């Protein structure tokens, strides 16, 4: 069974293309995480929030990544990280065109 990880945290920028340039190396690193299938990067400049939606092959990979990523973000000075893990219902998700 696949697992979805939802992460968000306070963030003051950079945004858009500047974020892409600044975070490119981090994105390359995340792409190599064990069990990761994909990540969607999220940003909400008006609310000063950023984060991501991740799909992992299994729950243990999602949990391990969340622990590591929360510690990494805290080392960047981000005091609070919200993280939730959900089991994915593949059959119903496929009906609604999810990339699972």
TrEMBL record:
Q: Which GO-annotated molecular functions does the record name?
A: monooxygenase activity
Q: Does the keyword Oxidoreductase apply?
A: yes
- Protein name (database record): Monooxygenase
Give the UniProt keywords, A-Z.
Monooxygenase, Oxidoreductase
Q: Does the keyword Nucleus apply?
A: no
In terms of superkingdom, the source organism counts as Bacteria
Family annotation (NCBIfam families): PRK11118.1
User: InterPro entries this protein is in?
Assistant: YdhR (IPR014910)
- Origin species: Advenella alkanexedens
Q: Which Pfam families match?
A: ydhR (PF08803)
């Amino acid at each position: 069974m696949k697992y979805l990880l939802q992460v968000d945290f306070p963030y003051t920028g950079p945004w858009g293309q500047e974020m892409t340039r600044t975070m490119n190396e981090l994105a390359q690193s995340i792409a190599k995480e064990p069990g990761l299938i994909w990540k969607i990067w999220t940003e909400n400049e008006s609310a000063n929030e950023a984060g991501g939606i991740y799909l992992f092959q299994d729950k243990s990979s999602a949990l391990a990544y969340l622990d590591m990523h929360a510690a990494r973000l805290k080392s960047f000075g981000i005091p609070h990280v919200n993280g939730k893990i959900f089991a994915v219902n593949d059959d119903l998700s496929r009906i609604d065109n999810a990339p699972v």
